[in-house]
Amino acid sequence: MINLFNHLEVEDFYYWTESSVLGSGLNGYVKLCSNRKTGLNYALKTISKMRPDGTDSSALIKSEIQIMSELDHPNILRLFEYFESHDKVFLILEICSGGHLLDSRRIQNQFHYPEKVVCKLVRKMLRALKYLHSKNIVHCDLKLENFLFQSDSINSQLKLIDFGLSQRITEETPFLSKPTGTPYYVAPEVLAGKYEYKCDVWAIGVIAYKLLSGSVPFYGRTDGKCTHLSVTSMILLTSFDYMMNIFILMVSFFYTFIFFCDYDICLN
Fold this sequence. Notes:
It contains seven helices and eleven strands. By secondary structure, the chain is an alpha+beta fold. Strands 1, 2, 3, 4, 5, 6 and 7 form a seven-stranded mixed β-sheet that branches.
């Protein structure tokens, strides 16, 4: 059960220093903190309720917390508790100190991984995805940056993070329509405005391609506003035939999963 403390100060239970920053984003930052009672270390994520453009993100933050409070899986970042003030939300999370998938500490072969390593990484991603989808939750923003290693160990666990854009599938709403995601990873059906779980499957395929080749399968111009339109045009127009002859070990693995969405076959 996730604890909510909206009348207490996070500083009363945890302490940290200004130099203990683990990461940062558009709406907040993550710091290493320690529990004052137990001495155990956690990651403290501070999120502003107001976005940089002045819009209120309280509803999205509440949705993210609700979703994370239902999740308990070794390949998904765990939320322990959270605090709320009038303008910020403080999440107490498990620590992931091993960096992201493209961290230079892990990639030793010009920005890509060997196929056998990618197979192992993708299996961990699919385990998280299978569990998430079993909860009727679609992540909607799978990308390289949203998978972190728990530690620096070569056998470190891989964790799925950031559920800020996640949505639920229900009997009343079996399909989603809200445009969401990151251009390089977005599925064609998302662009068409009618999608469900398989948009996450598409994104895993893009991630795997990037890990294998060092480049994304779909790209566009990088001159500001044109980027999204040019990338999505490539996604809608590109044929996949040329990919199937590049990587020997991954072909049958991804063919089975992407076209049949069969988790069990791919995870065996």
